[in-house]
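Regression check, nicotinamide-adenine-dinucleotide case 253:
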Amino acid sequence: MKLDGRVAIITGGASGIGAATAVAMAAEGARIVIADVNEAGTKSVVERIERAGGQALGMAADITRMADNQALVDRAVATWGRLDVFYANAGVPQWKTEVEQVEEAIYDRIMNVNVKGVWLGARAALPAMKKAKRGVFLITASTAAIRPRPGGQTYAMSKGAVVTLAKALALEVAPDGVRVVAICPVATHTPMLPTFMGKREVDAEGLARYEATVPLGRLNQPEDIARTAVFLASDDAAMITGTTIEVDGGRCI
Ligand SMILES: NC(=O)c1ccc[n+]([C@@H]2O[C@H](COP(=O)([O-])OP(=O)(O)OC[C@H]3O[C@@H](n4cnc5c(N)ncnc54)[C@H](O)[C@@H]3O)[C@@H](O)[C@H]2O)c1
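Current build output:
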C-alpha cells in the first residue's frame, strides 16, 4: 500500500474531490482526518471509510479560521502521533458572472476561502512537517489558474494565487524534506460543477460545451483527482515539488 502508516488531513473532505481522495488514501493505508463545514457529509465519508476497513475521523472545521486549521493538526498528531499529508482542498466556486456584476462580498468570500484558507492551512501544518523532516502539502488549485474561462475571473485569480503559493512554500520547506504541490483539475463532476456553468444543474448543453474544450473529450470524475493526490502524497513522487499537475485531459495545451 502506497500510504501505509501515514496520516493525512483533507479539507473539504465531505464532498466531491475531497471525499474521493479520503476514500482513496484510506484504501492505500492512510489514516484520515476529514475536515469540512458540512458535518453530516463528513460523518458519512468517515462511515464509508470505516465500512471498507479503514481508519478516519471527522472534524467540523472552517478553513478561514486559524484556530480550526491548528485544531486539525493538533488532533491528527494527538490521535495518531504524526502528520504526513495536509490536502488543502476545500474551496468555493464563482457563479458565472462578468466582473462588474461581482459583489465585493462575493470577492471577499472567494478570496477568504480559496486563498486565505489555504495559507492558514500551510501556517498550521508546515511547522509540524518541518519538525518531523517529512511531509507533503497538497493544494487543489484549478485549470482556471492557467487557462481561465469567461465569467470566472475572481475564482481564476484565487486559484492563480495558490499556484504561486505552492512554488513559494516549496522553496521554503525543501531544506526540511517537505514537498508542496498544486493540483489543477479541469471541470469535475462534483456538486460545484453547475455553478461554473451558470446553471442550477448540469444539463446536456452545458456538459457538451465544456466537454468540447477538453481534448480527451470528457470531464474529470473526482476519482481522477483522488488517484493523482495519492500518487503525489506517496514516495513515488519523492522528487516532485513546487510544481502544478494539470489533471485536465489536455485542456491547458
Ligand atoms: N468541480 C470542479 O469543476 C473543480 C475544478 C477545479 C478545481 N476545483 C476545486 O476542487 C476543490 C474541491 O471542490 P469540489 O469540486 O470537490 O466541490 P464540492 O462542493 O463537492 O466540495 C467542496 C467542499 O469544500 C467545503 N468547504 C467550503 N468552504 C469551506 C470552509 N470554509 N471550510 C471547510 N470546508 C469548506 C464544502 O462544504 C464542500 O464539502 C475546490 O477547491 C474547488 O475549487 C473544482
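Comparison notes: The mean pLDDT is 98. The chain has eight helices and seven strands. No diff flagged against the previous build.
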